[in-house]
Structure formats: C-alpha cells, structure tokens
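Example record

One chain of 118 residues, shown exactly as stored in the release files.
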Amino acid sequence: MQLAFLLGLLASAPQAAAQPELAPEVRSVRPRARPGKPAMSGVVNVNRASEAELRLLPGIGRGRAHAIVERRSKRPFSSIEELARMKGMKGVVQKLRRHLVVEGDTTLRPVHREPPVR
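Predicted structure tokens for this chain:
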C-alpha cells in the first residue's frame, strides 16, 4: 500500500521538478577571456632573448619561455626548425616564424596603434 502511494506521488509530480533549472544569470555567465598581447614588430633571437622577451610573443607563456631557455642552455638552436621540433612548439613556431631568428639582435617592440577616431 505504501509502495502504491509513493508511485502515485511520483507519477503526479511535474517532470520539471526532477531536473532543477539553473538561474538565468548562472547559465549566461562565461569565464572572461584574457586580454590578448599587443601586436609586435621586429624579431626575437631565441638563442639570446630573456624569458620576458620571449613571453611578449603571442602563444609563448611562462612554460614555453622557460622550456626554450632551458633547452638553449644545453645547446643553442641552429635553426628555427630545431625550435619547432620541441614538444608543443610546432604550431607556435609556424605562426611566429616571421618574428623568430637564431642570429642577430632582438628587435621586438610593441606596435603603437592610434585609437580609432569617433
């Protein structure tokens, strides 16, 4: 008898109550994207640049910059392709090829863009 009573309650309960709905503000909140790095001009010598200079490039964060410095301390890079063979670097090197060199000075500087006129 108690089982029949419980089954009757479950059958008469609205279906929406079984799955609680989130409040609208909770569903629409998304994590904020990090602001991008400023546009750069010039080149970075991966054999001489500091971690801070390497981190100026988009796609190069703390971990990748540290890995580059650690690897070059053992043996300097002879080519950009050698850098691309490092784990996780191929795509980044392809995108940044025009900013990467293994000889010469680091000349990387932010591009100063004028604000749009309204």
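Notes: Residues 23-29 have pLDDT under 50 and may be disordered.
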